[in-house]
């Protein structure tokens, strides 16, 4: 009887202490994943950053930042906030080590309902396409820089086909053509009639033209940075230097501060948020009360027990490929 009473009192206290520690740790947003900085509008903790990008970036247990899309999770190589874009690596795309070993690709897709979009600095190379189903011909050189002024044929004289980044002679006689897609359906059709494909983006070297870009394998995804007055006030060091976030239940704006979360900025005491639960893992008064009520019910049932008891979308409209 005494041990049962001790358990009844101790269990809720230990649970409350654990939940309090959880709240203290999760109200702060992580600012990096591995070597990649995590700044607004992104967040890898729920309630951090902009709700437009909620649950899109994931930091794995090994410290690898990954982008979630309808077709899977892809390692992030870099994130730029000055020229807003994400560089990702798709391991299912052709690379120099493949040579003429064309592995079946897994189509990469990007949800068009998000604030992400494929960068026009991407080029797509298709290998061993069927000449009966794909129109392939040589294009003038200006088409590589101004593809919108040319027709939609697959360019067999593309510079990237002649100078594959890092392995110019890797194909050994296999055909290659460059095609800039103008719609998701045309990309899916290309994959039906070509052995595989790869993506090359043009990395900016930050120097003056004309040699200010170099081609590298990967997919560049551009993103928008939603700018609001409330977020600027929240981040202002003279107003407390908070972190822009949102309520995980209502998705309303919140400024995340060391001493609590407010709806304006950290030094504005009138903007204090009334609820404690704003970030995943935080505690509400209801959850704490539930611990005590649950403990009381458990204790009463234990006293009354006479004997042990056993208890037996993705659609084609939002796909890139």
Automatic annotation (TrEMBL):
Bilayer-spanning residue ranges: 276-300
Keywords: Membrane, Signal, Transmembrane, Transmembrane helix
Recorded GO CC terms: membrane
Compartments where located: Membrane
Example GO molecular function: polysaccharide binding
Membrane topology category: Single-pass membrane protein
Wall-associated receptor kinase galacturonan-binding domain residues: 29-89
Signal peptide range in chain numbering: 1-24
Taxonomy, superkingdom: Eukaryota
PANTHER family recorded: F12F1.23 PROTEIN, WALL-ASSOCIATED RECEPTOR KINASE CARBOXY-TERMINAL PROTEIN-RELATED
Name of the protein this chain belongs to: Wall-associated receptor kinase galacturonan-binding domain-containing protein
Biological classification of the source: Eukaryota, Viridiplantae, Streptophyta, Embryophyta, Tracheophyta
């Amino acid at each position: 009887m005494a041990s049962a009473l001790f358990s009844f009192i101790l269990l809720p206290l230990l649970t409350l202490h654990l939940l309090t520690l959880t709240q203290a740790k999760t109200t702060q947003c992580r600012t990096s994943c591995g070597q990649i900085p995590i700044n607004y509008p992104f967040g890898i903790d729920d309630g951090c950053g902009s709700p437009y990008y909620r649950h899109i970036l994931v930091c794995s247990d090994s410290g690898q930042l990954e982008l979630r899309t309808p077709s899977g999770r892809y390692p992030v190589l870099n994130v730029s906030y000055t020229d807003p874009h994400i560089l990702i690596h798709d391991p299912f795309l052709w690379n120099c080590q493949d040579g003429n070993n064309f592995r079946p690709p897994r189509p990469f897709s990007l949800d068009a309902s998000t604030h992400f979009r494929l960068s026009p600095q991407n080029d797509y190379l298709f290998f061993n396409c069927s000449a009966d189903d794909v129109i392939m011909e040589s294009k003038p050189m200006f088409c590589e820089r101004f593809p919108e002024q040319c027709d939609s044929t697959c360019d067999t004289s593309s510079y990237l086909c002649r100078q594959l980044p890092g392995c110019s002679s890797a194909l050994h006689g296999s055909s290659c053509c460059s095609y800039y897609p103008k719609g998701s359906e045309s990309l899916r059709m290309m994959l039906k009639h070509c052995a595989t494909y790869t993506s090359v983006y043009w990395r900016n070297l930050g120097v003056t033209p004309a040699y200010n870009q170099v081609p590298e394998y990967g997919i560049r995804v551009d993103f928008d940075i939603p700018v609001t007055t409330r977020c600027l006030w929240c981040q202002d060091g003279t107003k407390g230097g908070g972190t822009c976030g949102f309520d995980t239940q209502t998705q309303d704006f919140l400024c995340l501060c060391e001493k609590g979360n407010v709806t304006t900025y950290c030094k504005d005491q009138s903007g204090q948020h009334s609820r404690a639960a704003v970030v995943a893992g935080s505690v509400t008064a209801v959850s704490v009360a539930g611990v005590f009520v649950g403990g009381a019910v458990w204790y009463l049932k234990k006293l009354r027990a006479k004997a042990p008891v056993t208890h037996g979308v993705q659609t084609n409209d939002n796909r890139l490929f």
